[in-house]
């Protein structure tokens, strides 16, 4: 009899796990990156109920295991569609079943979700687990949230009905999906919501002024408002965007905070003793709140770098390239794709970067610091297109007109990079947020990435 039971167990195991594809979070990532991926997956529709406290997949209580369960749930819900197991390069498809004791990982869409549909009467909804408590208007925290929960745990916030989500977005109220944040920075009426305990990862509460909503559900939300709603809709690129990337004939890269991890003018200013004031102007320029030419002139006037100071800076502070950029540029060039550097920074500081990457000097479009006969600072070349707002777009248009490229992409982090995507300019704007995440820019990107690996892998 025992032999029969053992054989039956083995047979069931073979039937349930003999083959399949699973999505898992990659090894070697920081807990912060894994937590971000976990948040994205849960908010984008993954069934994260089993990894709640007291859920069958809560243990082992690690970010890695919870992250893998969440991305796999999303992957299976999407029918294992190409591109749905990437999450900006933090996840990958595996042929090995990651299931463990008491926690089976689904390998098909039909088994990926077990969440009970919500009702349309939130005021009478009864929690289904002991770690869920409904809203009560007498509690504190300024949000109607039980005061003992604030600052002590994370929350998964569930809306009572899809129509309510639409109503909130239409009225410009930002509904919450995931809160592992400081809640006092949010002001809204949460009487329609319930709060579920969710496992904390960092051991502390961090600040986020705009809680994440992972997908807008109405077309009335304008792109510039998506900064408050999250960007997860463009982390996984559409087939159209992926096809554009694979057909690209030329790629234009921003330099500061994209090809390099630093903002060059900020670093030079800091070297000259004016770092803080200049960095504030840079943030305003990259966010698009002031014209670029105004910010450029203001920054240079704050420290007026001499030729000798620039040369000293270049000797003492060589370029610091972003991880993966050398491999990506090498792959692009191997595929006969032309590479350009288009920057609001200065040629004097970009030339060494181009040399490292093997990019010809004629493929650099950047500003030029002007010096007098004694090497003193006298200004910058205002004839360079990148010295003013819209200049990167103009540079891309000039390149396209001269080389007759059919498809071009612009990769960068700032508002001036986004401007390059326009008729006659770049067909595709990819926002690289591996150094700086600029909310308003990321929200309008065709593709949002946090590392260059997804671009590199998609070229294979």
Automatic annotation (TrEMBL):
Protein name, UniProt field: (rape) hypothetical protein
Region annotation Disordered: where it falls in the sequence: 107-139
UniProt domain X8: residue ranges: 21-105
Signal peptide range in chain numbering: 1-20
Pfam families documented for this protein: Hydrolase (PF00702), X8 (PF07983)
Residues that span the membrane, as ranges: none
Gene Ontology cellular component annotations, sorted alphabetically: plasma membrane; plasmodesma; side of membrane
Cellular compartment(s): Cell membrane
UniProt entry keywords in alphabetical sequence: Cell membrane, Disulfide bond, Glycoprotein, GPI-anchor, Lipoprotein, Membrane, Signal
PANTHER family hit by this protein: PHOSPHOSERINE PHOSPHATASE, X8 DOMAIN-CONTAINING PROTEIN
Organism annotation: Brassica napus (Rape)
Taxonomic lineage of the native organism: Eukaryota, Viridiplantae, Streptophyta, Embryophyta, Tracheophyta
Comp. bias intervals (Low complexity): 107-138
InterPro entries according to UniProt: HAD-like_SerB, HAD-like_sf, HAD_sf, X8
Membrane topology: Lipid-anchor; GPI-anchor
Chief location category: membrane
């Amino acid at each position: 009899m025992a032999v029969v039971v053992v054989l039956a167990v083995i047979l069931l195991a073979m039937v349930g796990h003999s083959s399949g594809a699973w999505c898992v979070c990659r090894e070697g990532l920081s807990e912060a990156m894994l937590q971000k991926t976990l948040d994205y997956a849960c908010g984008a529709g993954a069934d994260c109920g089993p990894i709640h406290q007291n859920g069958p997949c809560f243990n082992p209580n690690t970010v890695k295991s919870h992250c893998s369960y969440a991305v796999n749930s999303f992957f299976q819900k999407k029918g294992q569609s190409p591109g749905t197991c990437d999450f900006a390069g933090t996840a990958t498809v595996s042929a090995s079943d990651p299931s463990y004791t008491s926690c089976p990982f689904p390998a098909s869409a039909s088994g990926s979700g077990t969440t009970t549909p919500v009702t349309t009467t939130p005021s009478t909804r009864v929690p289904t687990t002991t770690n869920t408590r409904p809203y009560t208007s007498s509690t504190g925290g300024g949000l109607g949230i039980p005061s003992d929960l604030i600052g002590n745990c994370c929350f998964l916030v569930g809306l009572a009905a899809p129509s309510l989500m639409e109503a909130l977005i239409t009225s410009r109220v930002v509904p919450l999906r995931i809160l592992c944040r400081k809640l006092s920075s949010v002001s809204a009426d949460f009487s329609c919501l319930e709060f579920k305990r969710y496992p904390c990862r960092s051991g502390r509460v961090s600040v986020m002024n705009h809680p994440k909503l992972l997908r807008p559900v109405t077309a009335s939300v304008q792109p510039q408002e998506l900064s408050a709603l999250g960007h997860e809709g463009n982390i996984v690129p559409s087939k159209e965007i992926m096809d554009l990337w694979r057909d690209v004939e030329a790629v234009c890269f921003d330099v500061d905070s994209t090809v390099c991890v630093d903002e060059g003018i900020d670093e030079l200013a800091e070297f000259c003793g004016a770092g803080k004031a200049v960095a504030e102007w840079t943030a305003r320029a990259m966010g698009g709140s002031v014209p670029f030419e105004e910010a450029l002139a203001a920054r240079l006037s704050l420290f007026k770098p001499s030729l000798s100071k620039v040369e000293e800076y270049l000797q003492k502070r060589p370029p610091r390239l972003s991880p993966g950029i050398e491999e990506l540029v090498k792959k692009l060039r191997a595929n006969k794709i032309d590479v350009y550097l288009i920057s609001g920074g200065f040629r004097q500081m970009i030339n060494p970067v181009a040399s490292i990457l093997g990019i010809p000097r004629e493929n650099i479009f950047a500003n030029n610091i002007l010096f007098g006969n004694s090497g003193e600072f006298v200004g910058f070349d205002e004839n360079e297109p990148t010295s003013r707002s819209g200049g990167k777009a103009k540079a891309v248009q000039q390149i396209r007109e001269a080389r007759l490229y059919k498809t071009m992409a612009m990769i960068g982090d700032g508002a001036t990079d986004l401007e390059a995507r326009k008729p006659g300019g770049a067909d595709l704007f990819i926002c690289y947020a591996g150094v700086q995440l600029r909310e308003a820019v990321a929200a309008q990107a065709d593709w949002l990435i946090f590392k260059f690996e997804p671009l590199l892998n998609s070229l294979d």
